[in-house]
Amino acid sequence: MKQFSVILLILAISSNAFSQDLSSFTQVAHYTMNNTAADELGLQEDLTLINVVQNGSEGVYCNGKYIGNSTDASLVSTGQLDALYKPSFAVQVELKIDPDDGLNRPVLVCGDGWRYFGFYVRADGTWSPIFNDAQYFDQVTAPKAQPGQWYQLTMVYSGPDSTARWYIDGTYLTSVQGTFNRPADDGKISNTHYGIGSSFKGSLRNLKIFESDGIFSGSRQVKPSFYAEIFPNPVGEYLHLSVPNQRGGVQYRIFNSTGAEVMAGNLSAGDGIDLRKLRAGDYFLHLHSSEKSQVLKFIKK
Questions:
Q1: Tell me: the pLDDT tens digits for 124-141?
Q2: In this predicted model, what pLDDT tens digit does every residue of 195-243 receive, in sequence order?
């Protein structure tokens, strides 16, 4: 059973909520993967490349087989990176999903024994952040991934304000707030999720690592116009919401702590949600309109 230790605060999700500005970070590695496993900056040890196809400027191709049960499985892995234990760090890579796959796949995962930070692409093309070994699928409303197309993934963890953020091609996807559970000496980044026994299938190139002792300097914009509030919290039978009017109304989906959807529907300003059929526990309310999205955590008594 996965442990979900992260505490989610109210997250206002907007494509303009943060800019992808890494100018406050120092780059400490650049693995081009252009027929080489070496760090172009000469600061880190070579990548471990097992059973990958090296395609020059197209990077390396991974066959998607899991290293734990297949002798010809592809593995791309860094050595131990001190950057992953800095107060703040960022990881960036270019990826292209295999058109013939159709399975849920990790892209990059920080940590072998405990997957504290990473990114997943599900079979339907949904982007899925990983935080403290939990997958936050259905939290991202960006267009789905298209096989055979190159994307640039950027993952940023800002330790001073305990916030993880994910971007695709410079566009903000989502964020999770909480503190990493980072075991000592588990500072590798790889294409493999050892907890699930799954590996990326497709091409990777231009893996870059950044570090910083300060807070992430991405510019915070004003609070988006779509900003709902919920009450009471913890809640008994009915969850009340203050939801501004939005074109086309607001859709809601409720997920439990394991990521399973338990309720869904539509809301208008002043509406509440009948929770009498829900068991006691932690839940995540996803609100979506044609203009904005927001995720709120609540507790059912």
A1: 888 889 998 888 766 676
A2: 999 999 999 999 999 998 876 655 443 334 455 677 888 899 988 877 6
Residue 135 one-letter amino acid? Q
| Residue (of 108, 95, 202) closest to 151 by Cα position | 95
Q: Which residue has the tokens 């690592």?
A: 209
Which residue, among 14, 11, 16, 2, has the nearest Cα to 284 in the 3D structure? 11
Structurally, at CATH architecture level, domain 229-300 sits in Sandwich (2.60)
The CATH number of the domain covering residues in 17-212: 2.60.120.200
pLDDT of 20 over the 80 cut: no
Between 7 and 172, where is the model more confident?
A: 172
